[in-house]
Design brief:
The protein has three domains: 5-51, Uridine Diphospho-n-acetylenolpyruvylglucosamine Reductase, domain 2; 58-172, Uridine Diphospho-n-acetylenolpyruvylglucosamine Reductase, domain 3, CATH 3.30.465; 179-287, Enolase-like, domain 1, CATH 3.30.390.50. Helices cover 33% and strands 25% of the residues. It contains eleven helices and 14 strands.
Length: 289
């Protein structure tokens, strides 16, 4: 690696002040699990890294508000999120997803904010968070703003974040009757990068689906909702035929990309199968509650 400067601010405001809107080689670093790999390969050569490890501890906590909203500080390690009672009670699908997200060594270091800001379409949590209707709070030189996770990514490793902005918090709204499931298909070990990730969240009352969100990742350049399949499900009565039609509609709608994990044709078939499976699991969770 080429030499670089490292800054260790003690507050979020100080960290923001150390970022440079004119210099893309100045980057924040939290866990650094992805950024360090990019540096070792020579893909990224920073002039300065702004370490976020010493900023206020309030950005490293998970808690549920009085209204039922789940709030997770951006610097909370994924392993803490995985074992948080607050997260398990408010959104158990997040805990289930984390169990096969990379390995425990990575989860002990990687943070929820870094996971989202990295914008790698093969990461597991973004499609789940989109399905749950989550938002992030962002702070920067121009002030604070809120962004839907659905609107965060614009392409491979690209987000709408400005150069002097940092994610401060993830907010998952109360889920009510909504239940969710996440499936990923890997070509190697269960914790490997997925060839396809599918998140489904369903609001069902008995045999009637009132609302549904279906989000795919890894086969697309960013987490992508399948709106036609969602529309097919909305207001319909649950049946095997309906879920098969939803899988078919999802495969027809999805504009998938082939890569080293599988061809586009292969991933189309994965979408067909795994959308149906994710919907069945989400509906089964609804029946148990």
């Amino acid at each position: 690696m080429t030499p670089f400067e490292i800054a260790e601010p003690r507050s979020l405001r100080e960290a923001i002040g150390l970022l440079d809107p004119e210099d893309s080689s100045v980057r924040p670093i939290a866990g650094g699990t992805a950024l360090m790999l990019m540096m070792k390969s020579g893909f990224f050569r920073p002039r300065r890294l702004v370490s976020l490890r010493a900023v206020e501890s309030k950005y490293s906590r998970a808690a549920v508000d009085a209204d039922g909203s789940l709030r997770i500080g951006a610097l909370t390690p994924l392993s803490i999120v995985e074992h948080s009672r607050a997260v398990r009670d408010a959104a158990p699908v997040i805990v289930q997803t984390l169990r096969t997200l990379s390995n425990v060594r990575v989860r002990n270091v990687a943070t929820i904010g870094g996971h989202l800001a990295h914008a790698d379409p093969h990461t597991d949590l973004p499609p789940v968070l989109v399905a749950l209707g989550a938002r992030i709070s962002v702070a920067g030189a121009a002030g604070e703003r809120s962004i839907a996770v659905e609107d965060l990514d614009v392409g491979y490793y690209e987000t709408v974040l400005r150069p002097t902005e940092l994610i401060t918090e993830l907010i998952v709204p109360p889920q009510g009757r909504r239940r969710a499931a996440y499936f990923k298909c890997t070509t190697r070990s269960a914790d490997d990068w997925p060839a396809l990730g599918v998140a489904a969240a369903v609001d069902a009352d008995g045999a009637v689906i009132h609302d549904a969100k279906i989000v795919i990742s890894a086969a697309t350049d960013k987490p992508t909702r399948l709106l036609a399949a969602e529309t097919l499900l909305r207001g319909a009565s649950v049946s095997d035929a309906l879920l098969r039609r939803a899988g078919d509609a999802a495969a027809d709608e999805a504009a998938v990309i082939g890569d080293q994990h599988g061809s586009a044709a292969y991933k189309k078939q994965l979408v067909r199968v795994y959308v149906e499976r994710a919907l069945r699991q989400a509906l089964a969770a609804s029946d148990r509650n």
